[in-house]
Amino acid sequence: MGTRSTGNTFIDFLRGRLQTAGTLAFAIFLAFAVGAVIIAASGDSPIVAYGAMFQGAFGGVSKTASTLAKATPLIMTGLSVAVAFNAGIWNIGSEGQLFLGGFAAAWVGFTVKGLPSPIHILLCLAAAVLVGAFWAFIPGLLRVKGNTNEVVTTIMANHVATLFTAYLVNYPFKVPGSARGATVYIEKTAELLRPIPFSRFSLGFFIAVGLVVLVYHLMTRTTLGYEWKMVGLNPEFSRYGGISPERAMLSAMLVSGALAATAGAVEVMGVHQRFIDNISPGYGFDGILIALIAGNNPIGVFLVAVLFGALRTGAIGMEQATTIPSELSSVIQSLIILAVAAQVGFNVLLGRMRMRRRRATC
Question: What is the pTM of this model?
Answer without folding.
Answer: 0.92
